[in-house]
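Session log. Operator J.P. requested a structure for one protein chain; no other inputs attached. Running the standard single-chain path with token output.
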Amino acid sequence: MTDPEQSSTDSNQEEAPFNGDVGSVYGRRIFLTFCSGCHGFSGFAFYPPAPSFSMGDRMHKSDTELINTLLKGRNGMPSWEGKLPRAALVAALAYIRYMSKAATGAVPPVSNPIPERYYLFWSPDE
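Structure written below.
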């Protein structure tokens, strides 16, 4: 994955790929804690306009564009800038890309069970 502050000829190069093993769970943990409340445990969104990553929504965008969306937020999604470290956002995006591929059968699904709880974030201004 590329860092939006660095230029690169390959905008889809991954720095922290999620390979589905237990040693690569950081991005999954970040996603389940901070993102699954709207985007669903398996990447199928609970609420519009949240994209369903398991259906390929937004997966055509570059890592730089998606990291910037995570940093700045959009359409009811909170900004994570200053709230989560960049490494957490990079790891979450690697997991989101993995999850999207797993939904199509391109890679095996994660075998760990879904947690019994999730967190939902919203802005009281909306």
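Operator note: The chain has four helices and no strands.
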